[in-house]
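Dig into what follows:
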Amino acid sequence: MHRFQWCAACAVTLASCGLFSAPALGDPLLTRNQHVLTTLFGIPAPLPARLPRPGSGVATLTLNWSSFAVVDGSDSTSATLDGEVIDVRARVDHALAPRWAWRAELAWQELSGGSLDSLVDNWHDTFGLGGGARDRLPQDQLLVEYVDDGVTRLRVDEDGSGVTDIPVSVGYQVSESEQAAVSTWLSVKVPTGDTKRLGGSGAVDVALTVSATRRMADSWQVFGQAGVAWLGEGDVLPDQQQDFAGSILAGTTWQATPAFGLTAQIEANTAVFDTGTDLDGDAVVLTLGGTFTTSGGWHFDVGFSEDVLVDASPDFVIIAGVGRSF
């Protein structure tokens, strides 16, 4: 089955099981920097500021489909990032006790040469955006490579797919009112992915995150998140890996109608490597999208991300999601 059909089939199957849930007004879109090497590590995706009520939970299924094309370096050091990643991720949040909740995730990833290069080229041409290194790289090719002082330290050029590293999180509701909420989360990422196909880092990561949201008016809400992650020594470029990475997110949602909301959010994270190239993953990412909510409580998300700090993250990401509470 074609990978896009597989993703759609997963969404329909899980939706038919009645597992998903609509977010409260102001929830961020469930995406993070999709840099092919940054995603190896335990920098958390958006975590909810409002935890589920006792006895309840939320499940979501999201798709992040990213395309990247970067060439960077000098005479002695060079990096090439060219390809696509499809990330299909199921999440379940559930209350543990009053003021406490947990989140578990399971993700499947495909790394390949892909098929989006022509679409991305047309997108950039239509909106007058720079294409970066795309005109210097073959169409729909996979190559992730880092060469340092003439020695190839990393090279991945064969398509691969499978389960990625698995994060598990525990959250505490610091405060909550009708207008605002604050929570803290402790996340642990377990090394279950295959490092040879860039499905994981090969190490345990631990992150501490604070999430907050506030209703500004009947139709407007703002949200934010800040965190720091301790990165265990992994198997991918261990000599260049950083020990810590920080991240921050801010955004707003406008509920245009009771059934439809528009969200804009911006996320930044510090580098996970120190190579002096765009391979490092020090990024700023802008995400725009919308959420449609049915009368039965289902919600459907669609959006896209663009790199604000050019070449530091994928220059095009398609985002889709579905959810419901239980």
